Every structure is written in C-alpha cells, then in structure tokens.
Amino acid sequence: MKKVIQFLLICVVGFSLKSCYYDETLPAQEIPDGTVVTYKADIAPILTDCTTCHGGGVNPDLRNTQQAYNNLFPNYVTVGNPTNSKLYYNAPGNSNSVHANVGFNLDDTQLAYIKYWINHDAEYE
Ligand code: HEC
Questions:
Q1: Which atom of ligand 1 is nearest to the CA of 102?
Q2: Which residues does ligand 1 sit against, CB inside 6 Å?
Q3: What was the pLDDT predicted at 29?
Q4: Can you give the pLDDT at residue 19?
Q5: pLDDT at residue 25, as a whole number
Q6: CA-to-CA separations, 20 to 1, 13, 23, 24, in angstroms, rounded
Q7: Which of 90, 93, 95, 112 could form a disulfide with 28 if both were Cys (CB 3.0 to 4.6 A apart)?
Q8: Residue ranges per domain, the chain?
Q9: pLDDT higher for 30 or 68?
Q10: Is the pTM of this model over 0.70?
Q11: C-alpha angle 37/80/88, rounded to 5°?
C-alpha cells in the first residue's frame, strides 16, 4: 500500500514540475519589446553554470559578474548582432553551438534573453 501512495506522489510531483517547466519555456518572441534586460540582473544568473568550465581555463572567463561582462567584449558579443555573437550562437542549447554535450542546455527563454539583451545595447545594468 505504501508503495502505491509513493508512486502516486511521484506522479503528482512529476506532473506539477512538468507544467512549471512548460510555463517557463516561452518562445523567443514573447519577451515583450520595452522589457529592460541587463547583464547584472538577467544574463549573469543564466551563466552561473558555465563557470565549471569557463572559470579561467577556457575562454571566455565567466567568473565575477563585472569582470565576466568585460571579458565578453569585443570577442564574444557584437552589440545589435546576436547571430555574430559567440555568446549567443555558441551557447549550450543553441543548435549552432560548439558545445556538443556539457551536461545541460540553456532553454529557449534563456537563449531569448541573451538574444534580446544583445539586440538592446547589451548594458551592464
Ligand atoms: C563542460 C564544459 C563547458 C561548459 C559547462 C560550458 N562550456 Fe563553453 N566552451 C567549452 C569549451 C571546451 C569551449 C572551447 C570549444 C572550442 O573552442 O572548440 C567553449 C567555448 C565557448 C565559447 C567560445 C566559442 C568560440 O567560438 O570561441 C562561448 C561563447 C561559450 N563556450 C559559452 C558558454 C556558455 C554561455 C556556457 C554556459 C551556458 C558554457 N559555455 C558552458 C566548455 C564548456
């Protein structure tokens, strides 16, 4: 009997997590124009998992929010041009990425934020 309850619990929890996941992966065009997206508030949190590799050994070095921001220019971000910006097209999860399998992918919303940010002046804050 306990097993059955456990099983049901796992189903319920699993199902609710799944619906959260879908809520968060909105397509790119759903970041409304006029949204203020900054490196400090929006982009840096997306990049926290990257430092396991981009932590000094592999460029770009993405440690330390302000320093990481400086390291992105000019080689990895071309303001106004995401398709020319390695931070966007080489990010894990982007179909054109140099990363084959790093253990995780950025989701569509995270990629959309990076794209939007590059298209809107790529401000620090
Ligand atoms: C498991 C290790 C690992 C993780 C995690 C990782 N990367 Fe990388 N990344 C690499 C390696 C290795 C290279 C160099 C690949 C090459 O030059 O062929 C690289 C290259 C890059 C480049 C530069 C590509 C170029 O053309 O110079 C960018 C930008 C980049 N990664 C962004 C990211 C971002 C953003 C994240 C997190 C969302 C991330 N990486 C997570 C290993 C990783």
A1: 1
A2: 47, 49-50, 52-54, 58, 60, 76, 86-87, 90-92, 98-99, 102, 106
A3: 56
A4: 47
A5: 45
A6: 29, 11, 5, 6
A7: 112
A8: 2-119
A9: 68
A10: yes
A11: 70
Under the banding of pLDDT at 50, 70 and 90, the label for residue 58 is: very high
Closest CA to 63 of 75, 53, 73: 53
CB 60 within 8 A of CB 75: yes
Provide the pLDDT confidence category of residue 80 given band limits of 50, 70 and 90.
very high
Instruction: Please choose from 72, 96, 99 the residue to mutate so as to test ligand 1's pocket, defined by most ligand atoms within 8 A of CB.
Output: 99
How many angstroms separate the CA atoms of 47 and 51, rounded? 7
Residue whose entry in the numeric block shows the structure tokens 């992966």: 25
Q: Which of 91, 46, 39 is nearest to 65 (CA)?
A: 39
pLDDT above 80: residue 8: no
- Cα of 24 vs centre of ligand 1, distance in Å, is 24
- The residue nearest atom 33 of ligand 1, judged by CA position, is 91
Cα of 14 to ligand 1 centre, how many Å?
31
